[in-house]
From TrEMBL:
Gene Ontology molecular function: ribosomal large subunit binding; tRNA binding
Keyword Magnesium: no
Ranges where the record places region Disordered: 446-476
Domain NFACT RNA-binding: 486-565
Keywords: Coiled coil
Entries under Pfam families matching the protein: NFACT-R_1, NFACT_N
Protein's name according to its UniProt entry: NFACT RNA-binding domain-containing protein
GO biological process, one term: rescue of stalled ribosome
GO cellular component terms given for this protein: RQC complex
Sections of the chain in a coiled coil: 377-404
Amino acid sequence: VDTLVLQRLTAELDVKLRGTRIRQVYALPKDDVVLACGSRKTLRLWFSAAPNQPHLYLRPGQHPTPTQPPGFAMAARRFLNGRRIEAIEAVPGERIVELHTTGTDAIRVVFELIPRRATALIVDHTEQVRAAWKPQRGRPAVGEPYTAPVADGRTAIGELDAKIWSSLSSSVDSHDLVRGLLRSIAGMSPLTAREITARHRSGVPLRMAAQMEVERAAKEPMAARIYSPVRLNELACLPSVRKFVVAPFLMRHIEKTPETLCLKEFSTLSEAVATFYPLQAKLMALEIARHGLRSGIDGGIARLLRTLDAVSEDANAAGDAEQHRRWADLLLTHPHTKLTQAIARVPDAFGDGNPVEIPVDPSRSVVDNAQAYYQRARRAQRSAKRTTKRYRELKARITALRQLSSEVAVARKIRDCQRLAKGALNQGVKIATSAWSIAEAPFSVEKETTGNKPPSIETPIGLSKKSHRTRHGQDKLRRGAAGIDVFTSSDGFKIFVGRNADANERVTHKLARPNDFWLHAEGPGSHVVIRNPERIKEPSQVALQEAASLAAYFSSARGATKANVRWT
């Protein structure tokens, strides 16, 4: 979590949680700890020790509860349950937050949100560590005195001398300047470093730009927001850290970039991070699932191809049954042929009469050699039946796995990946899915605003997605339409999008009518159909453009600058 975000977020947490009681402590699978606080309305303080992105935030809603609480949860409940929160404070310039409780024997919880070394420690009034979540090497163990992490030796911004400022100003590349600011200045936030760099590149001296941004970070009114390359409810893969950002207020270095970025604003920073981090966890789990599917399916295809080669070699080694039988017949036709060498030359009694060379064993008689060839012919015939069947089975499995592999790129949900893993298992490829679970279930996301920029493959805007509502008011796809998304173009055309192989089959061969328009991007992807009940000759340019955007978005070309889409 960015230190700029953490400082602002901690202030909100202090206001919302001060004076509430800790009712229960949960230690969830993998990396997460939840403190349930309050009485009437339960507030959940969620801490994740995820190695790459540790974070702390407040969120409502339920969470999975393990049947067997880990040892940390049992110890934490003994020390924290029933205690009232006195304050929540962020250590200035550090990724450390301390939760203080009331009482003469006050207990505090220290959340250390340091990447790859994140941990949570429960410390008593004697400064002894009583429980540790995800203990880290070099940090105090249970029963040892608590000590703060060793300072990294960076200098406060007000104490930097002119030589360091001059060295930083000489950085030619913006990325080098950002890295230099982070390495040199204590407590420097990556977001603040990028803002300083953007201001300096516009002509402001570096030292002055840094001072202006530090003052702005302290005084700027809250305007929480999330920046992302597409609308949040359309994110299907984890963007880069520079394109997927949660910020406490406007970030000029992002909004001045020429790239198309979507903006989602929130009334509080807590609401923003409660949307951002669960969504990030979902996308990370989806990336893990896709990677596991790709490697598992590709490995299965490679193994089947090797088996296919072995089957072909076995078939070739068995020989040609017809040729063996013909040689046996020719040998029996000339039973008195003398075998003095490994090759017998006999006239072709069933052809043009020219001599035929037949490999033989000179130590055996002509009849014995003929019987051996009959035996080899029978063996080759049996082998041919087996290998032909086996060859077809292997080819069918390889084709099915390649189809599944093409669907991995357009899988947008964990359940889509689980369906593909089940399909791979049906073809004999087992893929481990235990690491695909998401402890932080994402919230629903409302429609975001975008700038006045043209839609790209990543942002098929102007479309509204329709769901079929039952009389009870619940969203439900009509019978037989699972895996099919229905959109409406800006000018009213219905657009069907298949999301997997079965859905593509239904869209093209069952839902589409002879007068409808069919679209498909080059390479693996979804089948897209524009309904044409009026039987017009061509769709509108708006509908065609938006349907083509969908075809490109739900294909292997997603993320590319452009894609070829064919329509008929």
